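Just wondering, does anyone understand these C-alpha coordinates?
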Amino acid sequence: MMRLPSKETLVYYEEIDNWITSEEITDDGVILVFKKSTPSDVIELFEKIKDKLDFKVKEYRKED
Protein backbone atom coordinates (compact mmCIF):
# COMPACT_ATOMS: atom_id res chain seq x y z
CA MET A 1 0.00 0.00 0.00
CA MET A 2 1.36 3.40 -0.94
CA ARG A 3 1.73 6.09 1.69
CA LEU A 4 0.54 9.62 1.04
CA PRO A 5 3.26 12.29 1.05
CA SER A 6 3.55 14.55 4.07
CA LYS A 7 2.01 18.02 3.99
CA GLU A 8 5.53 19.49 3.87
CA THR A 9 6.49 17.35 0.89
CA LEU A 10 3.40 18.53 -0.98
CA VAL A 11 4.35 22.15 -0.19
CA TYR A 12 7.87 21.42 -1.46
CA TYR A 13 6.60 20.14 -4.82
CA GLU A 14 3.99 22.89 -5.20
CA GLU A 15 6.03 25.93 -4.12
CA ILE A 16 9.74 25.13 -4.04
CA ASP A 17 10.63 22.46 -6.60
CA ASN A 18 10.39 24.89 -9.55
CA TRP A 19 13.26 26.88 -8.01
CA ILE A 20 15.63 23.87 -7.98
CA THR A 21 18.18 23.70 -10.81
CA SER A 22 19.86 20.43 -9.82
CA GLU A 23 19.60 17.56 -7.38
CA GLU A 24 22.27 15.07 -6.44
CA ILE A 25 21.22 11.97 -4.56
CA THR A 26 23.84 10.70 -2.12
CA ASP A 27 23.86 8.01 0.56
CA ASP A 28 23.53 10.78 3.18
CA GLY A 29 20.63 12.62 1.50
CA VAL A 30 19.87 14.94 -1.39
CA ILE A 31 21.99 17.96 -2.30
CA LEU A 32 19.79 20.70 -3.79
CA VAL A 33 20.90 23.73 -5.80
CA PHE A 34 18.47 26.63 -6.02
CA LYS A 35 18.34 29.05 -8.95
CA LYS A 36 20.32 32.23 -8.36
CA SER A 37 17.10 34.25 -8.67
CA THR A 38 15.25 32.33 -5.94
CA PRO A 39 13.39 34.79 -3.66
CA SER A 40 14.36 34.81 0.00
CA ASP A 41 10.82 33.88 1.08
CA VAL A 42 11.11 30.61 -0.88
CA ILE A 43 14.40 29.80 0.89
CA GLU A 44 12.82 30.68 4.26
CA LEU A 45 9.86 28.38 3.55
CA PHE A 46 12.26 25.59 2.56
CA GLU A 47 14.26 26.05 5.78
CA LYS A 48 11.04 25.74 7.82
CA ILE A 49 9.93 22.47 6.20
CA LYS A 50 13.16 20.71 5.17
CA ASP A 51 13.40 18.55 8.29
CA LYS A 52 9.83 17.28 7.80
CA LEU A 53 10.15 16.26 4.15
CA ASP A 54 9.73 12.64 3.08
CA PHE A 55 13.36 12.69 1.90
CA LYS A 56 16.53 13.71 3.70
CA VAL A 57 18.25 16.93 2.63
CA LYS A 58 22.01 16.71 3.11
CA GLU A 59 22.69 20.28 2.03
CA TYR A 60 21.42 23.06 -0.19
CA ARG A 61 22.78 26.24 -1.75
CA LYS A 62 22.09 28.81 -4.44
CA GLU A 63 23.84 28.36 -7.77
CA ASP A 64 26.97 30.46 -8.34
